[in-house]
Amino acid sequence: MKACPYKREYRLLTPADFQGVFDAKPKKFSCRYYTILAANNSLGYARLGFTISKKKAKFATQRNKIKRVIREHFRLTHADLPAIDMVFIAKQGISSADNEMLRHELSYTWKKIQRYIKK
């Protein structure tokens, strides 16, 4: 089995990284639980950042669970994604979604992103 690490360089860490996505007129990909803003980067690999507010998921354990599920799915599908920066923005009701539903929605969103970038 091939190792799929989740390296530090695959994350949007600084406010400047996030602002770069917002300033680049990103493409929006939405579902009922989240919106992903995607903008091209010149790094050659995909990066991911999160914004999950307390209004969307009240408890830290809920926010951490959501991030953990998304990070794991991103780690496993990272090689298939184009070179883009993505900001994950949670919507109301995401805390009530179970892990399997989040994975299903993410799979669908990754496919939409791949189709859009190939155009």
Question: In words, what does this structure look like?
Answer:
Helices cover 39% and strands 19% of the residues. It is an alpha+beta fold. It has one domain: Ribosomal Protein S5, domain 2 (2-Layer Sandwich). It has a 4-stranded mixed sheet with strand order 1-2-4-3, with helices on both faces.
Summed up, what is this model?
By secondary structure, the chain is an alpha+beta fold. 39% of the residues lie in helices and 19% in strands.
How is the topology of this model organized?
Layout: H1 15-23, E1 27-30, E2 34-40, E3 47-51, H2 60-77, E4 84-90, H3 99-118
Parallel strand pairs: 3-4
Antiparallel strand pairs: 1-2, 2-4
Helix pairs in contact: 2-3
Please write the string of helix (H) and strand (E) elements: HEEEHEH
Beta-strand level of the residues, as a percent range? 15-25%
For the residues shown, what is the average pLDDT? 87
Measured between the Cα atoms of the first and last residue, the distance is: 32 Å
What coarse outline follows from CA principal-axis ratios?
globular
User: In order across it, which strands form the biggest sheet?
Assistant: 1-2-4-3
CATH topology tier name: Ribosomal Protein S5, domain 2
So, CATH architecture? 2-Layer Sandwich
How can the largest sheet be summarized? Answer: 4 strands, mixed
Work out the number of β strands. Answer: 4
Key features?
alpha+beta; tRNA processing; 3 helices; endonuclease; Ribosomal Protein S5, domain 2; 4 strands; four-stranded mixed sheet; 119 residues; RNA-binding
